[in-house]
Specification:
This protein has 166 residues and is of the alpha/beta class. Helix content is 30%, strand content 26%. The strands form 2 sheets. Strands 1, 4, 5, 6, 7 and 8 form a 6-stranded parallel sheet that branches. Strands 2-3 form a two-stranded antiparallel sheet. It is globular, with a radius of gyration of 15 Å. The two termini are 16 Å apart. The relative contact order is 0.20.
Length: 166
């Protein structure tokens, strides 16, 4: 069976260990690509029709609003079938203690019965928050393993951490 990495990542202004700065490639995307390279997994990037704001504080406000309303942002494309995969890595930044609602727009549409799910999250110190329990709720009948928390500032140098977790 095959492996798949489903991920959401954000570019623009991000909070990093040295403060807010612009990034051209999202931290979660960097980690997702590393996992795919190490495991031979396919990649599926979750992308919203409406881009999240470039400005860090505006993006935070939008993320908070979506979480509070349990919004399901419309996506550019939807993953419809994961039957060919046995292991699915799910990656995301931590926004207000969990994954962005854009990821929920994809996950709740899929049948995770008997799939092994391995969550991973980028953050600057908040850890996994409630994201693993939220994934268990959306990925019903999956075997959800322990998640991996990675400091976004360390995404590009996370190989040893990933090797241990994988």
């Amino acid at each position: 069976m095959k492996k798949l990495v489903i991920y959401f990542s954000h570019t623009g202004e991000n909070y990093m260990s040295d403060g807010i700065r612009n990034i051209d490639k999202g931290n979660t995307e960097i980690v997702a690509e590393k996992i795919a390279a190490k495991t031979g997994a396919d990649l599926f990037k979750v992308e919203t029709i409406k881009d999240y704001p470039y400005d860090y504080y505006e993006c935070c406000a939008e993320a908070k609003k979506e979480l509070q309303s349990q919004a399901r942002p419309e996506l550019k494309r939807y993953l419809t079938d994961i039957s060919q995969y046995d292991t699915i890595y799910i990656g995301y930044p931590i926004w207000y203690g969990t994954f962005p609602m854009a990821l929920a727009s994809t996950l709740e549409r899929l049948d995770f019965t008997d799939k092994t799910v391995k969550p991973f999250a980028t953050n600057e110190g908040s850890g996994l928050g409630n994201s693993v329990s939220d994934i268990k709720r959306l990925c019903q009948n999956a075997i959800v393993l322990d998640g991996l928390s990675i400091h976004g500032s360390d995404a590009s140098i996370s190989d040893n951490l990933l090797d241990s977790w994988l």
